[in-house]
Each structure stands twice: as C-alpha cells, then as structure tokens.
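Good day; I would like, with your permission, to put a structural problem before you. A protein sequence and the structure tokens that stand for its backbone fold form the material at issue. Thank you for your consideration; the sequence and its tokens are set out here:
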Amino acid sequence: MYLASLGTGYWLLHYRVKHDSLPYSREKFFWALYWMFLGILIGGRLGYIIFYNLGEFLGNPLMAINPFVNDEFGWSFRGIYGMSYHGGLMGAVTALFIYVSKNKLKFWKTLDFIIPVIPLGYFWGRIGNFLNGELYGRITEKAVGMYFPTLQSLGWKSSFLRHPSQLYEAFFEGLVLFGILWFLRNKIKTPGIISAVYLLGYGIFRFGIEFFRQPDVHLGLVAMGLSIGQFFCLGMILISILIIINQKFIVKH
C-alpha cells in the first residue's frame, strides 16, 4: 500500500507538471515526494511511539526497530507495527521544509502543489488496514456491521459486529478530500490556502469518524469522551484557520 501511495502520488504530480502549466520540473517534485515519503515513514513511526506507546518504548527501546519479541512463548517474529498519521504528517512537512530550503524553493507553493495528491495515499493506507482487519470500528447493530478478527484469536470471527471505520476513512479522508482538493488545485492562488483546506478537511472528517472507530485498547478515550486522535484533529482545524488568516493578511499587506 505504501508503494501504491507513492506510485499514485508520483503519477498525479507528473500530470500536474505536464498539464497545469506550473514552473516545476518532474525531477524536483519526484525528489520532494521522495523526501516527504521518508518523512512519513520516520515521523509516523516516531509519532506512534511518542503518542501511543511511549511506555513500552521506554521499557524496551529496541522495539522501535526490532521485529522480534521475546515473551512467555519464547522468541517470535512480530514485525514492526504501529504508525501514527499525525506523526507522519509532521515528519512529511519537516522533510519538505528541509528539501525546499536546500533547493531554494518556496515552501507554501511547493506544499500546495503536492498536497492535493496526498489523500489518495491515505486511501490506500486505510484499504490496507481494512484488509489486515486492524483499526476496526466500534460495536454496532446496524446493517453496515462486519466481523473482524480479534488480536486474541486472529483468523476467527469476533462475536461482535463492528463499523468498518477503515472504509469510512478511506472514502471521506481519501476519495472525498482528494476530489475537493483536486477541484480547487488551480482555482485558489493564495499560497498556503490549499494546504490549509487539506488540514481543515482532514481534521473535520477524521474527528467525526473517530466516533465510529474503536479507541486504542491501551489508551481508550482521553477526556470529554474524545480520543487522542480527535484532540490532534482539533489542533489541525485550529492550525488551518490560523494559516488562512495569516496568508490572507500577508497577501493584503
């Protein structure tokens, strides 16, 4: 799914370079996408450790990169699991900032060029979650409910129907948000606004869908009936509003 995300993003950026009459070479934006991809991987992993699993990391720092685990059953291959969207976002933005600084490009203009293709990458990621039967939704009696294997009995049907929240996220945070940004990509000229629309749209969609998604077992709901992801989404919404106000102010002055 990561390869599908990278391939889709590269193809769409190539399309933009060719058809949207922007003064950027394909090579520059391939490398920008590459840097952001690395930022997503590193930031996503670090974000998961810091935001969601700091206790286990402090007790066993090697768990960040070690795919093997030693438990009561002995050594076994667990794989390296756990990625945070918000950590990946911060990693991608940091990596892009470093890249544009080294290549003397404009940060907002570069980010606005790339950001419309990002939701499709997220679409592939959530489809992967669905196929893995992970990050499933809360228990429901509605017709949309599905069975997902539990961590305790992988491969067996859970006794409860659950929301396929991965598909909700793939649709709204992936396809719908992509459609909005792709439609607006050449209509909004103020630097930074397209990126702000992405933050705003994702924050709103994810905040709402979190009410259907099963909270992390070891974290639960943090406060006021909200998950830690919802608090991050509120932060995204606030940042998007500040970006819009700031960029509009700069243009007027």
User: Anything to note?
Assistant: The CA atoms of residues 134 and 148 lie 8 Å apart. The chain has nine helices and two strands. The two ends are 44 Å apart (CA to CA).
